[in-house]
Amino acid sequence: MNTFRNEPLLELRRSTVRNEALAALAALDAKLPLEVPMLIGEDVVQGQVFSSVDPSAPATVVANAHAATAAHVGDAITAAERGQKVWSQRPASERAAALSRAAGILRSRRYELAALAVREAGKPWAEADGDVAEAIDFLEYYAQGALALDGGRPLIQMPGERNAMRYVARGITGVIAPWNFPLAIAAGMVSAALATGNAVILKPAEQAPACAKAVVDALHAGGVPLEALSFLPGGDEPGKALVADPRIHTIVFTGSCAAGLNILQTANTFVPGQRHIKKVIAEMGGKNAIIVDSDADLDDVVPGLLKSAFAFAGQKCSAASRALIHKAVADELAERLAGAISTLRVGPAADFGTDVPPVIDIAAQQRIQGYVDSARPLAQGDTRDDGFYVAPTLFHGLPADHKVIQEEIFGPVLSLETVDNVEHACDLVDAGGFALTGGLFSRSPRTIEYVSDRTPVGNLYINREITGAMVGRQPFGGGRLSGTGPKAGGPDYLLQFVEARAVTENTVRHGLVV
Amino acid sequence: MAATTQERPMDLERPIKEIGTDLAARMPRPRLVSTARVEQRMTEMLMKDPALRAALFRFVDVRPACDTPADLIRHLHEFLEEAESKTAQRASTFTGRPLARRPIAAVAGAGVKRMAQQFIVGEDAKDALPEITKLWKHGVETTVDLLGEATVSETEADVYMRRCEETLRALAGAATKPGQVNLSVKVSALTPLLRPTAPERGIEGARPRLEHLLRVAKEVGAHLHVDMESFDTREAITELTLDLLSQPEFADGPSAGIVLQAYLVESPEHLDHLLDWAERTPRTHPFVIRLVKGAYWDHEVVQAAQNGWAPPVFTDRRECDRNFEQLTRRLIDATPTVRVAIASHNLRSISHAAAYADARGVGNADLEFQILRGLGDDTQAAIAATGRQVRAYCPVGDLVAGMAYLVRRLLENTANDSFLAAHASGTDTAELLEAP
């Protein structure tokens, strides 16, 4: 039944593929800036224009988007009330087919969309391509998952009684998407809601509206009715209005912890006229640590740490920001990492030779620079000033209460801490507030078992990098302050978007079971 | 007309059988060699029991990272526990009583260091010299490969380059005739900048160091051979090597070469590229192309599967073997523009190359055979006894580096399709010599 396969990644190690990618980028550049209006029900709506820019060359405007106000949010929800009726009544197979057609449209635009993520989010090619492939994966995976869910669950049956349990759509869903996976996470959150029969209003990240619009366009073209999916670019205002509106049933959010906690508070505040309890599905970041045991193979640890901490400039929820290293190997590893960090090339996302791209915007650059300047680094890579760049930075032996160790940085910063043993490292991880991803380098089966048992994180990676979760292979999401728990791209995710309905029929008539 | 007849591989079958049967007759069965009895028993055991095989390889792999005997024993027990639970879950892999594994593994553990020493000729050039000069005295040519940790920084790349230079000079000091010094180098050890999506970075990074080594090799009259590694780095390694060797200063030396991996589906096109370059680039010493099957098969297949790519390697062994023979014939046809090295332990591949070279009148001046020291010693002796030229690939390095090398070789040679394993288990010579 389940035939899902991950979308193949572009084989960028081949020059022919790289040339095709560069041609797609040139074609995109000729079209910039893109126009990104609001899409409210059947209407294309203009508003106050704001721009997304290329983080590698901030003078380049990638898209001119139209900002939604609270009033636009009201209009979109009104449209969604119609859309909810229409869409939820479509058979699950029809909804799944629409999502699958949308996946096909994204597939046919692979290079173009990767180029767009390179430009608008500053994602290096491999990361940008992974973003497109993951968006396709989410659409296909949730389409299949919703079909499976449509059959309901078996219940205990008694003579004279027929029991059934079905899943039904919760209702209008507000999606607030991040910029760091501008295609994949938007596609994932929106398609999970759509697949299960919910109308959706998407508020994309301010920094990457054009990427999100590409996903919405594909879904509309695939057959999702216009009133079942509205699109509201903008800043805080539409996001806040969306969360507060009593007609919203489910809020799906990926972003910072502070914003997530605000959403939870607002969503849990009863508004007169509200006839249901809102549900919040939130993924809110982490402070991810990799434990390195004394029996680890440092030849694997060095590239694993570099990739986890510095790929996409550390701007993934899953990125590593702490390495907890057994004292027996700490000095050697620190020395090798210090040497390795200077081999990282900081540069434009579009350059295939780039290891560390710029960060998303000037606010992020200044915030991260504050951490970089807060202590003396053990080693540091290069930086440049023609984009929002931050030098990849390695700290070693900072005090436990230092903000570099305590706070989520979301940038190319890694701090090394020496630990007495793996138990000590687990204690440190356990003391943290976040619990998203974690890593362990060890060749001892018992140590692997010990850390697997003790770790609070949602995703533990052993003897590899801790980023790059694949749909259907590494269901993604954390606990504690990292989020509300459900695993995106996993078998349980869709359950968040439905309500179960049990129907029991008495089949006894005149004393006879009929 | 005669040439056309010779090109038909069918006509080679008879000489291949003759040469192969002769070589096989000169090779002792490993089971008859008393010093190899433990290894032989282990190989047999490992081939029958995949769970135990995995446990032992993981043990060999972690051994250098274990500081104390207690730590070593702890790891060994954990691996065996896991192997036993796996066998319990999958009854089909159960071939022996689980408890019988412990003493065998203990023997293996104790033998690990000795086995590594069987493959590795010394910790460094100085340490390896007695062993290498001994091989020279017995008429066996060598190429030295410096094992080491992965290169992750410029400093580490410099260290590797200096080790290469010291080795070249040390070997040159001991050499008794010209052309005796031969070093195989890894571009991935000469730079931390190899990136699959940006070959130019690795090329720029390794260029000054490889250039330096070419100059040293020229100065001391050594041959420098650039090893091939995973497919990710193939383009960078090839382009860098050909570009440097195109420089006027290297036209009259040193002798140099590259590797062609027959397991790559695109290897015929790679050979087109290499031959085209060789024809356009006259050199005093003919360009040497070493034909190998390729040592990164698992890596290539796993990486391709995880990314959804078509594997760059043949997944059918016979197809790969046929390609090896086609490339062999094309290489031999390209002599003397290139000099050919057939690096294989496969009796059929070796016999085929020898038969075709004989038919083409290509001799030791243009063709040599290469084997891995410690694994192909019997093959080496048999080939040498028939008057053909053999070179032994000799790894040099410490125990840490040696273990990784040992794991790779053991995995290769206990795999189900391994020629050596088939030979060791007593497969009939005629079967070993069948056309792929």
UniProtKB/TrEMBL annotation, chain A:
Report if keyword Ribonucleoprotein is assigned. Answer: no
Domain Aldehyde dehydrogenase per the UniProt entry, residue ranges: 49-503
Please name the pathway: Amino-acid degradation; L-proline degradation into L-glutamate; L-glutamate from L-proline: step 2/2
List the catalytic activities from the record.
Answer: L-glutamate 5-semialdehyde + NAD(+) + H2O = L-glutamate + NADH + 2 H(+)
SUPFAM superfamilies per UniProt: ALDH-like
Answer whether the UniProt record assigns the keyword NAD to this protein: yes
Residues at the active site = 283
What do the Gene Ontology cellular component annotations say? cytoplasmic side of plasma membrane
One family from Pfam that matches here is Aldedh
Q: What is its EC number?
A: 1.2.1.88
The protein's GO terms of the molecular function aspect are: L-glutamate gamma-semialdehyde dehydrogenase activity; proline dehydrogenase activity
Keyword annotations of the record: NAD, Oxidoreductase
Q: Name one GO biological process term.
A: L-proline catabolic process to L-glutamate
Similarity annotation: Belongs to the aldehyde dehydrogenase family.
Q: Which PANTHER family match?
A: DELTA-1-PYRROLINE-5-CARBOXYLATE DEHYDROGENASE 1, ISOFORM A-RELATED, DELTA-1-PYRROLINE-5-CARBOXYLATE DEHYDROGENASE 2, ISOFORM A-RELATED
Q: What is this protein called?
A: L-glutamate gamma-semialdehyde dehydrogenase
Which species does this protein come from? Answer: Solirubrobacter phytolaccae
- Provide the taxonomic classification: Bacteria, Bacillati, Actinomycetota, Thermoleophilia, Solirubrobacterales
From TrEMBL, chain B:
Query: What molecular function does GO assign, one term?
Result: proline dehydrogenase activity
The record ties this protein, via InterPro entries, to: FAD-linked_oxidoreductase-like, Proline_DH_dom, Proline_oxidase, PutA_N
User: Any idea where the Proline dehydrogenase domain is?
Assistant: 129-421
The Proline utilization A N-terminal domain is annotated at 13-119
PANTHER family cross-referenced by the UniProt entry: PROLINE DEHYDROGENASE 1, MITOCHONDRIAL (PTHR13914:SF0), PROLINE OXIDASE (PTHR13914)
* Keyword list, A-Z: Oxidoreductase
What is the designated name of this protein?
Proline dehydrogenase family protein
Which Pfam family, any one of them, does this sequence belong to? PutA_N
Please cite one Gene Ontology biological process associated with this protein.
Answer: L-proline catabolic process
Taxonomy, top ranks, is: Bacteria, Bacillati, Actinomycetota, Thermoleophilia, Solirubrobacterales
